[in-house]
Prior knowledge:
The protein has 194 residues and is of the alpha/beta class. It has helices at 8-21, 36-49, 108-120, 187-191; strands at residues 5-6, 27-34, 53-61, 83-89, 99-101, 123-139, 145-159, 169-175. The longest helix is centred in the N-terminal third of the chain and has 14 residues, at 8-21.
Amino acid sequence: MPPEYINEAEVDRRLDRLQERYVAFPVVEKRESLSQAQYERWTADVDAYDYIGGAYCWIRRDEDEAPALSESMPEEAADDGDRVLLIMGRGTSHWGVPGGGIEDGEISEEAAEREVREEVDIDCSVSDVLFAERVIGTHESTGSEVHLLYTFFEADYVEGEVAIQSSELNGACWFRELPDDLHPAIEDRAHDWP
């Protein structure tokens, strides 16, 4: 039986659309060798959820977009700089950016904005692509492949106050100075902050 290339054409189509719409951005390709059990898990997700990958947002809030201080707070407590919203997912010990899986029929930008609303109750607007990560899982004996696409966006804060989805997150915070324990996927962007 010849190898299958699951999601390859759809990932190509989605990448082409992003590259037509946004200024040039890096596309990182990661390859993983999959055992039979791993391959079955990956293809089960694709079959059950039409899983294609995920979309995430690096959300910046300007100093003047911070909520007003309550009357009991001293003036010195006012935000003194721009902030970025980071989350800590359950089962992890590092800070990352909000986002998640792309649902059937969604483009990456819609998925990213929806996931941010679901996870932290913040409205944001995607403005650019930071980078895309194409993950290719290859069955170790058949050569069949599963292609997934993870897109990381720059986004602007629109409105809302952080309220976490506790079934998925341990916390969320607007950071001015970034913590040391960052998810590897956002370390490059963090070097350019603020």
